[in-house]
């Protein structure tokens, strides 16, 4: 959709703007097997309803780690919350667009609303030329711009936590407390359900989060 806007230099800039972590700056011990334990269907995209949207754990791992580095998500408690949200909202990374009920412009791996997608896109300097070339009121075009590049697609959950939630929410997740996770859910505009909690508990276990009441 945006191919007529892309020059090789800009494409390279956008693809690498959220750089992968370097060996000297690890932010997580997360590996592919842990990611599969959190999002079991991410072991394969063979049966994905929309194959072009699906990413396996192997494909998702690098962009997720990149988002942790970019937004300084360093504690297991924060990482568990973000991983569980992305896995739950995208059905184990199978979706990047809201198909059910099909809200136009809603998507990325945490199924972010159109209003926040625009804020997120505007926070990324490399996207400025692209935003200038489209009508930002076109929520589908803004979403297309974000999901076209995998690192941006997987970076929205970390961006939202660090830019839209207050420090008390972040501190609560860092502590690993149940109250901290509840406060985070309130910040992202949802509440705890058994299905959502199952993802969070798998993430807590995979990352070894020490929880408290």
List the keywords:
single chain; 213 residues; mainly alpha; Lysozyme; 54% helix; disordered N terminus
How would you summarize the topology of this molecule?
Blueprint: H1 8-16, H2 32-38, H3 57-70, H4 76-89, H5 114-122, H6 128-132, H7 139-147, H8 150-164, H9 167-175, H10 178-187, H11 194-207
Helix pairs in contact: 2-11, 3-8, 4-9, 4-11, 5-7, 9-10
Strand content: under 5%
What overall form do the CA principal axes indicate? globular
Q: What's the assembly state of these chains?
A: single chain
Put simply, the count of helices is: 11
Largest sheet: none
Rg, Å, rounded: 16 Å
The residue fraction in helices comes out at 40-55%
By CATH, the architecture is named Orthogonal Bundle
Low-confidence stretches: 1-26
In CATH, the topology is named Lysozyme
Supply the CATH class: Mainly Alpha
Give the helices and strands as they follow along the chain: HHHHHHHHHHH
Give the total of domains. 1
Mean pLDDT: 89
Structure classification: mainly alpha
Tell me the distance between the termini: 48 Å
Keywords: Signal
Signal peptide: 1-19
InterPro entries: Lysozyme-like_dom_sf
Task: Please tell me about this protein's structure.
- This protein has 213 residues and is mainly α.
- It has one domain: Lysozyme, CATH 1.10.530.
- The chain has helices spanning 8-16, 32-38, 57-70, 76-89, 114-122, 128-132, 139-147, 150-164, 167-175, 178-187, 194-207.
- Helix 2 (32-38) packs antiparallel against helix 11 and helix 9 (167-175) packs antiparallel against helix 10 (178-187).
- Residues 1-26 have low confidence and may be disordered.
């Amino acid at each position: 959709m945006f191919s007529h806007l892309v020059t090789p230099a800009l494409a390279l800039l956008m693809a690498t703007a959220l750089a992968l972590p370097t060996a000297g700056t690890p932010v997580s011990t997360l590996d592919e097997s842990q990611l599969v334990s959190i999002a079991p269907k991410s072991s394969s995209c063979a049966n994905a309803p929309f194959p072009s949207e699906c990413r396996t754990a192997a494909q998702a791992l690098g962009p997720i780690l990149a988002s942790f580095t970019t937004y300084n998500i360093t504690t297991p408690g924060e990482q568990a919350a973000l991983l569980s949200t992305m896995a739950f909202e995208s059905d184990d990374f199978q979706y990047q667009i809201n198909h059910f009920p099909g809200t136009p412009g809603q998507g990325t791996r945490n199924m972010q609303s159109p209003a926040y997608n625009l804020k997120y896109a505007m926070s990324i300097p490399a996207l400025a030329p692209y935003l200038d070339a489209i009508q930002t009121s076109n929520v589908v075009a803004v979403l297309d711009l974000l999901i076209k590049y995998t690192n941006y697609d997987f970076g929205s959950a970390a961006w939202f936590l660090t830019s839209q939630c207050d420090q008390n929410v972040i501190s609560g997740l860092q502590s690993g407390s149940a109250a901290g996770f509840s406060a985070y859910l309130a910040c992202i505009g949802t509440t705890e359900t058994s299905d959502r909690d199952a993802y969070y508990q798998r993430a807590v276990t995979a990352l070894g989060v020490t929880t408290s009441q």
